[in-house]
Amino acid sequence: MTSPASVEPQALEAYRNSARTWLADFAPPPLPQDYRLRTGALREWHSTLYRSGWVGIDWPSEHGGQGLSLEHALIFIEESARAGAPQPFGAIGLHVVGPTLLRYGTRQQLERFAEPLLSGAETWCQGFSEPDAGSDLASLRTRAVVEDDGFVLTGQKIWTSWADDSDWCAVLARTDPDRPKHKGISYLLVDMHAPGVTVRPITQITGDAEFCEVFFEDVRVPRSNLLGPLHGGWELAMHTLGHERSGYALRRRAELEVSYRNLLDAIRREGSGSDVAAEIGTAYVTLSGLSALSRRAVRRARNAEVPSPLDSVDKLALAKGEQQLFGTALDLLGSHRAAPLTRGTSLDGAQIVKDYLHGRAASVYGGSEQIQLTIVAERLLGLPRAR
Ligand SMILES: Cc1cc2nc3c(=O)[nH]c(=O)nc-3n(C[C@H](O)[C@H](O)[C@H](O)COP(=O)(O)OP(=O)(O)OC[C@H]3O[C@@H](n4cnc5c(N)ncnc54)[C@H](O)[C@@H]3O)c2cc1C
């Protein structure tokens, strides 16, 4: 990612003002509750953002981005959250797989994939987890048999977010079963419309079918779709996960801060019990911590210090913030028996319940809480490996 060493505060302020003005003119109406309709509306929103130069803000201009800094990109995220405008639809492409494509992609791969990824013409998903390989990702069993002109891919992925809306998937596959398990994995860019790919959506507790099972049956993947070295996919996988953990915390923080302010306003207007008042204080402390961590995350991203065990700290803090905040909101709904808060206030009871339920996933996606804590203990604090 392009990130000049430091950006003039006046330049950032001017950028913030232009984002605010644009969002005031263009922010979309509230999104439909129905998942399919919402996805359609989000795709349209992505296109509008792209046409107006608000997608790929910190991507290099030679690959279709705006060539600005991460600080610029975060400003647009903050202003979008304030305006109640959603993020671009293709989050996995932009923020999870995209950074790895930019870091390890060949010139031809970047020419082929970057522009459609940014424009939203092609959407990406991340095929890492398998039924028996989540926390222990290196034991994955999806196999890619190496042939002269490419690979033949067979296996199953699970929990693949937005797979049924995706055109491409970043797949980790075992290309050499005889090497130690971390060393026989390759990172393949797989066409989701190729013969042999089957996607089955899974409905989550929120009622949305956001993630899926993906089956690969003798899917042919051309050699040109190998990202990075053959059998060297583990390093790329760690790069992707580092950006997922740290980058999502950076972006989501802005939205959590807006939800926090809305909640606080509602408590001021409607009142609450002492338990909720104490909880909102705790949420304030947790979000302040997340905000401080985000300044460090910007510095780390600027200095290309991702991946690092510090990504796990950001991820843990995000999960705490998310669950704490929406837990408080849910308790507030409970203390008012929901109705007063859904009448004449900025709070939406159904949305709070959904946010609360979705927040439960924050300690699982991108690597579970226990695994992140183990990374912190062993790699950051230097404690002996757990037996
Ligand atoms: C909303 C959501 C979206 C997701 N999207 C994607 C996606 O797009 N692409 C993708 O590839 N994956 C995705 N995932 C999957 C996610 O990365 C995995 O669920 C996660 O890594 C945990 O793996 P698992 O579910 O197999 O649980 P398991 O690894 O089976 O773990 C089960 C429990 O055991 C604990 N545990 C396991 N091993 C240890 C250990 N050694 N020490 C201590 N505790 C341990 C875990 O912490 C967890 O609590 C998504 C998950 C969710 C919830």
From TrEMBL:
One Gene Ontology molecular-function label: oxidoreductase activity, acting on the CH-CH group of donors
Q: Which cofactors, by name?
A: FAD
- Decide whether keyword Oxidoreductase is in the record: yes
> Which keywords does the record carry?
FAD, Flavoprotein, Oxidoreductase
Q: Which Gene3D superfamilies match?
A: Acyl-CoA dehydrogenase/oxidase, N-terminal domain, Butyryl-CoA Dehydrogenase, subunit A, domain 2, Butyryl-CoA Dehydrogenase, subunit A, domain 3
Domain Acyl-CoA oxidase/dehydrogenase middle positions: 125-219
GO cellular component terms? plasma membrane
Calcium keyword on record = no
Family the UniProt entry places it in: Belongs to the acyl-CoA dehydrogenase family.
> Can you say what this protein is called?
Acyl-CoA dehydrogenase
Kindly list the organism's lineage. Answer: Bacteria, Bacillati, Actinomycetota, Actinomycetes, Pseudonocardiales
